[in-house]
Amino acid sequence: MQLRVKITKKLKDFTLKQEFEIDRETLGVLGASGAGKSMTLKCIAGLVTPDEGTIVLNGKTLFDSQQGINVPIQQRRVGLLFQNYALFPNLTVKDNIAFGLRRLPKKEREKRVEEIMARLGIGELAHSYPHQISGGEQQRTALARTLVTEPDCLLLDEPFSALDNHIRQRLEEELAATLRQFPGPVVFVTHNLRECYRVSDRIMIIHQGRMVAYGSRDAVFNHPPTVEGARLTGCKNISRAKPIAARRVAALDWGLEVEVRPAGDGAGGAYGHIGIREHHLRLVDDPHLPNTFPCWVERVMETPFNVSLFLRFKERGAEAPGCQPLQLSLTREEYDRIKTRPFPWLVQLRPEYLFLMQ
Q1: Which residues make beta-bridge pairs with 57?
Q2: Do the beta carbons of residue 54 and residue 68 sit within 8 Å?
Q3: Which of 25, 252, 255, 302 has its CA 20 to 30 A from that of 104?
Q4: Which residue ranges of the chain lie beneath pLDDT 50?
């Protein structure tokens, strides 16, 4: 099972240019609203026609602009789950799921529907209507309707966006388990970092219609190759960078010189920025550790379970103009243990967690 996409589509604000290839795995597509994520799915499904390019699924050409091929949506064997689920309000759960099987004999249709309802744990909802079931149950119903047609490829367009936070994680786990059993490629669109990481095997980041990062989920999160990719994966600490020596870099916006490791070079040798994630900074006692600097807390931002500290590296008024604070994330327990210590504290930017970007 393989999906190959190479398409171009002129949109109002930018040109969508996508090129990727996936096998039997889940590709998470991450990006800001309006970046072109959903448009990519619509082009694959056949709802929107690209201006040029090719889309090939399991060796079958679904779209080829040069050869004039554009297979109709109902013949593509692609399952698309919309973010609003698009359930028919006048049909029961069972009839919603069976809707795409109208051409099958009744006995086969009922067998498939019963099997998928049992698999997704919604058998007891068979005779309920969409307005009578919860958001999570609606999502499972929509997923069942998509899977029951046995598509070769599955496209998920922000399937958790309509759900309350308290049920999201459970449903993410359920969906991830379901996708592991799916025999074909899956493209999963989201703008939520955590659900993208939990559900996906590989990640593609889109910025204004173009891919700015692509790879395994750990590679994309730990060593994003571009500033846009770092920001879209939640990196709070980014600085302009200038090389000083083989493994030393001037972080211009932090006012620091730091040691980097070769593994931190996600930019392929050419870079103009450096970054580190807030949970990879750590407070230490040993001033001789690499990349350890005295620091002062500029401000504190608290949440119920975590505390973000904004650190500067000179006493107030002594820092160079334009220097940006670095953000460090601690648990509340960690913060309570150190908050009364006299300044300056010592913070380490561990070399193995610094990454260079284009």
Answers
A1: 3, 60
A2: no
A3: 25
A4: 263-264, 267
Give the model's pLDDT for residue 269: 60
DSSP string, 273-291: EEEE-GGGEEEES-TTSTT
Containing domain of residue 278, as a range? Answer: 235-357
Q: How many residues does the chain have?
A: 358
Compute CA distances 161 → 252, 286, 354, whole Å: 38, 45, 32
pLDDT of res. 317: 59
pLDDT digits (tens, 9 = 90+) for 205-246: 999 999 999 999 999 998 899 999 999 999 999 999 999 988
Q: What is the pLDDT of residue 264?
A: 47
Are residues 240 and 207 located together in one domain of the fold? no
- 319: nearest Cα among 300, 342, 341, 295: 295
- pLDDT one-digit tens code per residue, 117-154: 998 889 999 999 999 998 889 988 999 999 999 999 99
Domain co-membership, 41 together with 109: yes
- Same domain (yes/no): 222, 262: no
Judged by DSSP in three states, 131 sits in helix
Residue 110 sits in the same domain as residue 221: yes
Whether 137 and 243 share a structural domain? no
Together in a domain, 151 and 199: yes
CATH number at residue 182: 3.40.50.300
10 Å CB burial of residue 14 (0-12, 13-18, 19+) is: middle
Radius of gyration of the chain (CA): 24
Nearest to 357 by CA among 226, 190, 189, 166: 226
Name the domain boundary from 194, 209, 226.
226
Is residue 324 located within the same domain as residue 259? Answer: yes
Helices marked H in the chain: 37-45, 93-98, 106-119, 135-147, 165-181, 193-199, 217-222, 227-232, 332-338
The verdict on 20 and 149 lying in the same domain is yes
